[in-house]
User: What shape does this take?
Amino acid sequence: QSALTQPASVSGSPGQSITISCTGTSSDVGGYNYVSWYQQHPGKAPKLIIYDVSNRPSGVSNRFSGSKSGNTASLTISGLQAEDEADYYCSSYMGSSTVIFGGGTKLTVL
Amino acid sequence: QVQLVQSGAEVKKSGASVKVSCKASGYTFTSYAMHWVRQAPGQRLEWMGWINTGDGYTKHSQKFQGRVTITRDTSASTAYMELSSLRYEDTAVYYCARRGIGVGINAFDIWGQGTMVTVSS
Assistant: This one.
């Protein structure tokens, strides 16, 4: 498996909520509660926004939330703001001390 | 403050090797695992491998088996990633990323600034 499946792009207006999906298999997303989400602005390093499916690191806005059902994890951003426009990547543990990333989703704030 | 500072950009010929360094500061180096992730221009993040900075255990993505070597120098609080037999497709930004404590293996809470590696023919 080369990458977890994410939609290439999503969009929303300020104040709205959007959800980004991340689909894997029972060998990664579905098999472990180790899904992380990263936000990446152009030319910058990624930033951890969700870890272990639904936990937020200190300092990350509570507008970001994560969940998982079966082989699909989801990132929801509520109260969309202009600064949320970025690329978002999911990541999952794959067992045997290995990690896989998703293909990435470009979020456009209209 | 806690930070990871990587070595500068590299330009290499196809077939050569490159070694990228990642110096940690502001925390106990051997208490946190270090991972390496790369990103080709306009492409997705790609996990390469990691090192247990305490005992030196390493694990690599099968994609890079035989070509990547991850090491560390605990006295210098520095991790290294060496990629050999470079090809054009290895042109990318290479990041080191620290795994947080008490969290999943893929929870990288601190990232280096990235090192651009350009492979030319």
Summary: The mean pLDDT of chain B is 96.
